[in-house]
Amino acid sequence: MAEDTEWQPKIVMFCCNWCSYGGADSAGMGRFQQPPTVRVIRVMCSGRMDPVFILNAFLEGADGVIFSGCHIGDCHYVSGNYKATIKYKFLKAMVNELGLEDERLKLDWISASEGERYANVVKEFTEQIKKVGPSPLKPEGVI
Amino acid sequence: MEIGDCYIGWATDEEIRSKGASGGLVTAMLAAALEKELVEAVVVLKKLGEFEAIPIVTSDPEEVKAAAGSMHSVPIVLSRYLEYGTKVALPAKPCDARATIEQAKRQQVNLDTTYIIGLNCGGTMHPAVTRKMLETIYKLDPEEIAGEEIDKGKLIFETKDGKEHAIKIDELEEEGYGRRESCQYCAINIPRMADLACGNWGVIGDLAGKGTFVEVNTEKGIEILQNAIDSGAVEITPADEKGKAIREKVDSAMQKVAASAHEKYLAPIEGSHLDYYMNTLSDCINCGACKTVCPVCACGEAAKCTDFYSQALGYKMSLFHLVRFVHLMDSCIGCGQCTDVCPVDIPLTHLYRRFAEPLQEEFDYTPGVDMRTPPFFGVDLIED
Lengths: 143, 384
What we know:
The structure holds two protein chains of two kinds.
Chain A: H1 2-5, E1 11-16, H2 20-29, E2 38-43, H3 51-60, E3 64-69, H4 80-98, E4 105-109, H5 115-132
Parallel strand pairs in A: 1-2, 1-3, 3-4
Helix pairs in contact in A: 2-5
Chain B: E1 6-11, H1 14-19, H2 25-35, E2 41-47, E3 53-58, H3 61-66, H4 78-81, E4 88-92, H5 94-105, E5 114-119, H6 127-138, E6 145-151, E7 154-159, E8 164-168, H7 169-174, H8 181-184, E9 196-199, E10 212-216, H9 219-230, E11 234-238, H10 241-265, H11 273-281, H12 289-293, H13 319-328, H14 337-341, H15 348-362
Parallel strand pairs in B: 2-4, 4-5, 5-9
Antiparallel strand pairs in B: 1-10, 1-11, 2-3, 6-7, 7-8, 9-10
């Protein structure tokens, strides 16, 4: 039972209502295996993502954060994911300067039909976080 | 008169000329703008003492004239004192001018009705630090000081008995005195983003000390200068090439000094960045003063950052500051006010600059120099 004692990271994933959340659904319906490390939070659009959400997630004890939305050009609200890209650049610069590992933050585009891709993104990201270990920003007492 | 022209000007009124700095051009221009009703109000600095001044808004030309004389204060949040669209003229250091432009981008100030008269600036000094410096290094009584001056890299204080006391600025700054740290590495000395850029650099020959060098940057600049000339308050003469060259030389020399100060104060963090930020910010008492004085913050009292004041959240780092770091990444002008007001002496300006500089470089964006939208809000849909 070695698997049970292995440290499992906590990952917060923000999915947009129109694509990535649907992607999570299709991953479930298609029964693609994925690690149970992700907590999905649905937002209406990736453009709604506020850098505050992500910083707050880290301070609340997340080991990694993914935020994902519709592919560029496919946004339900036309330009939401362009805005997400800009915010991601800000966050990346922020995380770099703050001294958090680069690998803890990821932006990805997943459409509603890409269930398998969703599962793969989760799998790869979990492996990545396992390599870098628990987040140094995790509050006391949070596992 | 055209945009880009350079002149040397002075006040015609003998009293303003002798009382104001470098010929009193700016004072005369402000007073003339009020008298001719070009503006409804003027922001001037009222002296509280030899080292301290507060900005006041006035419509009385006499009060403007009384405020003559060079005095530096910190950038003010113009929108907090004036209604949107008030016709106003203000003398401004580069950081004041940049702050005003940033406020205009956030619809706090209407630039069409704001005349910014820029003043060259080589740095400002904190009143409390200056007092301490006088007592410990100059061994002078702060109450005895009659004037101050910077000449050839020396900071000179004149006492009431007429004696001059000079010490090299480099030596003072080595000891932690002298100019504000954020001023030491500020590289914008000539306010070319303002309507007029005034200063005493480049005034040579007979006019040295008696005239002000003016560069006209905008239509509004022409308007306010022409208004003062028409009303007979100021006289101007075109600046010669030699003066212009000297002004550029002073500017580039100052920039070089700023670059070395930048290396000193913003040297790469040794060891873990995260530990550095956690330790530095752990003193924070969440008073929110840094947000209140910030000239580029237009969020109002209940803002996103103020939701996270509470220490009870049990976070390892202040989320209040993290939110502010993100918010100021594209718009921090490095004015240094947050460090000034911090009751627990966190070097906040340095921290904000550390976050802001890489990003401002990446987006090739300098806040406050033109009306370009901050990158955070600028979405370019026609991407290749």
